[in-house]
Amino acid sequence: MFNFHKDHKNLVNTALSGFVFLSIIVAVLPAYQLQDVEPLPKQPELTEEALKGLNVFISEGCVACHTQQVRNIEMDKIWGARPSIPSDYYYSKQRLDVWRQSPSLLGSERTGPDLTNIGKRQPGQQWHLLHLYNPRSVVSVSIMPAYPWLFEEKDTISIREDDIIVPVGPNFYNKAGKKIVAKEEALQLVAYLQSLKQPEIQGEIPIDFIPAAKKKREKGNAEQASNSLPDGQQLYMQTCSACHQENGQGLVGAFPPLAGSAVVQDENPELLIKIILQGYDARSEYAQMPPFADQLTDAEIAAIANHERSSWGNDAPPISEEEVKKIRAFVTQLN
Ligand code: HEC
Ligand code: HEC
User: Is residue 133 domain-shared with residue 193, that is, in the same domain?
Assistant: First the structure.
């Protein structure tokens, strides 16, 4: 009956039904399911600037090395508080322009870290600008390419008030009377990176990393609860070392050293805790430090502070979660 050599109608019909069947499975059904995807309650829309930054992200090909998907396996736990869900990509419904929908930049290569939560992990605008101008200027062993065409060189006298100067250290840029200034594209790209925050899910987390990892984490949490503070060194590496560096030496012209710092070692930890909570922009020779009040709990701040107070030759008495709590309450009351 199915003699394709003799009956061409049979041939066309079989091929056509195969095509229709596969189209329904790989295109129509998924598109249909996607109609139910709702934005998460705490998920802001991309601002106009961030949307332009998404365009820069696409045209520069950042997706070649960076994913934006937290998988539900244990090794992805460091990239987000939970695995990604379809609603995380809701912004893709905001169009790039009339012709193009915003793509979900899931990516498939992780040559560099996943960027799902980079806006929380690395909130500082100046850090991102330095990193894009030359990744080696903040991460000495980085293999990420530099994007100098997102910046321009300007004579100090022709710099306008609203120009954003990038505090590149003398090892990476050193021309008398000139400064590196961020172009619009660089600022848009950074606005996009800063907007990448994994939204919280209200109430009970309906999804989690694979059960084995969950069990281990529950055990870990129980241990932690009975055993005071979390691991300050690990938190320092995740949150502070990108700027102040692993060895606490900072970077000339951008980030001050914490090794030997009087603020870090002060008997009274008030200023140190305030700096972590509120950020810091006191001296013109350094960049700005972003605030961490929303990212870190009291216990985490105490653990980081204690790591800083007892490392790299620093020697100051430890502080407790309670002390951080008091200073946070005081600071929030003022605002
Ligand atoms: C050839 C691969 C490659 C490309 C292309 C690339 N990156 Fe990276 N990126 C890396 C690597 C490797 C790291 C880790 C080392 C570092 O922090 O510099 C990284 C780190 C980062 C970080 C810091 C992540 C963190 O967790 O601290 C950000 C932000 C970032 N890249 C953004 C970008 C943007 C934006 C682009 C496009 C303009 C881009 N990258 C293009 C490889 C790449
Ligand atoms: C995006 C870069 C960046 C990150 C991340 C960062 N800092 Fe800073 N930090 C700075 C800059 C810049 C200054 C100096 C600001 C100034 O003096 O104007 C600073 C200053 C400080 C100071 C004051 C040091 C002194 O001797 O005056 C302390 C303490 C400090 N940071 C602690 C931390 C801790 C703890 C973390 C992690 C929770 C952290 N920083 C994360 C950029 C950063």
Answer: yes
